[in-house]
Specification:
Elements: H1 7-15, E1 21-26, E2 47-56, E3 59-67
Length: about 70
């Protein structure tokens, strides 16, 4: 297993079809700017299958399988 971090690198790997799984740690904080993970992929919609949702204090951990 190889992990990638950051929205830009993750988006490039997703666009190239190199990701098998996506993990998102969702923290409810509003930011004025940033890089949107699923914006401007320039490819067909990516189908995801949720594999786990783990709530914790101040964060929800989401895991998805990328369907190919």
């Amino acid at each position: 297993m190889i992990g990638v971090g950051g929205a830009d690198v993750t988006r490039q790997c997703l666009k190239a079809g190199l990701l098998d799984e996506i993990g998102i740690d969702l923290v409810p904080v509003l930011l004025e700017s940033g890089v949107r993970l699923f914006e401007c992929l320039g490819i067909e919609p990516v189908e995801l299958e949720i594999t786990s949702v783990t709530p914790d204090t101040g964060v929800t951990h989401l895991r998805y399988r990328v369907l190919k």
